Amino acid sequence: MADTPNDNIPPISTSSAAPIAGKLSLAQRLEYWRETFRDRLADVDSLPQLTLLGLLTGILAGLIIIAFRLLIEVPLGYWLPDSFENFEALDPSLHFYLPLIGACLIGIVLQFIDKRHHSTGVGHVIDRLQNHQGRMPVGNFAVQFFGGAACLLTGQSVGREGPAVHMGAGAGSLLGQWMKLPTNSLRPLAGCGVAAAIAACFNTPMAGVIFAMEVVVMEYSIAGFIPVILAAVAGTTLSHLVFGNVINFAPLTAEMGGLLEMPLILLAGFFIALLAALYIRSQAFWCRIALNRPIALRFAFAGLVTGCAAYYFPQILGIGYDTIERTLAGQQGFWLLLGIIIAKLFVTSAVLGVGMPGGVIGPLLFLGACAGGAIGVLAHNLMPASASPIGFYVVLGMGAMMGATLNAPLASMMAIIELTYNPGIIFPSMLVVIIACLTTRWAFRCNGLFETLLKIQGKFRTPEIAEQLLNKTGTRQLLDRHIKICARTLSYAEANTLLANRPHWLVFDDNKHIIPGQDLAAFLAQQGEAGASDTINLLEIPARRLDIIPLADDSTLFEALQALEAAKVEAGYITTSQAQVAGIITRDKINNYYRI
């Protein structure tokens, strides 16, 4: 009969666990429950355990994002007049020198740090989830935290959400690694961290959930949604406690004036698709140029480009929410908006293309707002009596630019609804986002930004179905724990004692070989009483002998299968924290599980 995934996992109900735990010391009892919890997490459907861990991840990610925001907003609020985003009020010479000096200093510091830790942002998170089973290094996390803060403090043309996504995913992944959880749980925990970070950063919990599932995890499931939603709630709650329930942009109550504006909405979609394609291709160009170049040289170039452009258009410095607010209020002229668009598009694509540890979503919202504002000014010139407010077009542009560039239409629409609290924007935003996404993808032949950049770096791939399924289950879930450890040579009495509990496998020769227990039983039955005085050598009796190798106790089924294939063996084993063999898994059992 085929083994089912849960056949060999010890139960955790009170009735079964209490007798075992009662005989153990406190330390042994805690170790027993920890091992049982890890076994449950190895299951593909470990919803209760993941929900609890999702809550912990949401709290941890929320606290990290709050610390990150305070690290940026408190110094800038003290230094800049009126607002922590008001770089425009600085002396014009600082518009040039501040980003230049800041970028040079960041580059010099990173030049002395191992280049393995230079990769940051959303693209790094996707790479680690696709190619490294969700294991995120602490070195990249530290570079993102302090490097991202330094970028924003020195007015670089980047956003804060890229660092937020990285740090949120890192919080979940590092928590799982610290707790030595099965690797199949690291990916959903990273998704929980992303949702909590976006929620805490922008006060957009639902957009955080959709962004995590659509852009980062790239997977929808009921079991996956519940922990992510809870994490987003935790992140939002912490953000409200510190910053209050603040709407990022003034509530916009305007709705579409009438169907006569449909041509202008279509025009906005096509125009933003053009900008999205230009942005993707521009950042891809700089990414290719930057490959294998010294990071100090790359960042010095980025600072010089930013300083030169900011001298004429200081609006591009920093996150730029103040500029978006003025554009929403219709306070920016048509030609000024076009100038800002060109400067911001060129500078941000260059800065992020060479590897600056900042985010792209903020700049995309900025570009979309300016593009929508330009269309809004045009609408008022063509239809002064009936056109919707300029802010209406600004919001449409923000959603369309984000959706078209990231190939994330649902996340972008949800973000706009939560950023503006205007349900009347839903219908026109659906239209303009879809037009912009389709035009970018099919007319301009551009994939999403992160996919494009990862392909240039040789890090993007599409996992096969078998890999996706096997990576969702930990090796511990299929372990056959009905085993006995023994010596290579046995007496007749020792052999009978071993078989008293009918073990499935006998492990011998210093954990190098196994044979089925039933094969030894068959040999004893064949020998009968006549062989009672003989010594039994398990390497010589007729039996199905398998070589075995040790497997990582947190590995997924896919990782275990890869290890078995690489070693050209048919079975492996996992050890407990006391270095005892916990159980055996065979290649046949993994293949049968996949077929089931």
How is this structure best described in words?
This protein has 596 residues and is mainly alpha-helical. It has helices spanning 14-22, 26-41, 47-79, 92-111, 121-131, 138-153, 161-178, 186-202, 205-216, 222-243, 262-290, 295-312, 321-328, 334-353, 361-382, 390-406, 409-420, 426-443, 449-456, 465-471, 492-498, 517-527, 557-567, 587-595, and strands spanning 483-485, 489-490, 505-508, 513-516, 536-537, 546-550, 571-575, 581-586. The strands form two sheets. The protein has a six-stranded mixed beta sheet with strand order 1-3-4-6-7-8. Helix 3 packs parallel to helix 8 (186-202) and helix 16 packs antiparallel against helix 17 (409-420). It is elongated and about 105 Å long.
SSE blueprint:
Elements: H1 14-22, H2 26-41, H3 47-79, H4 92-111, H5 121-131, H6 138-153, H7 161-178, H8 186-202, H9 205-216, H10 222-243, H11 262-290, H12 295-312, H13 321-328, H14 334-353, H15 361-382, H16 390-406, H17 409-420, H18 426-443, H19 449-456, H20 465-471, E1 483-485, E2 489-490, H21 492-498, E3 505-508, E4 513-516, H22 517-527, E5 536-537, E6 546-550, H23 557-567, E7 571-575, E8 581-586, H24 587-595
Parallel strand pairs: 1-3, 6-7
Antiparallel strand pairs: 2-5, 3-4, 4-6, 7-8
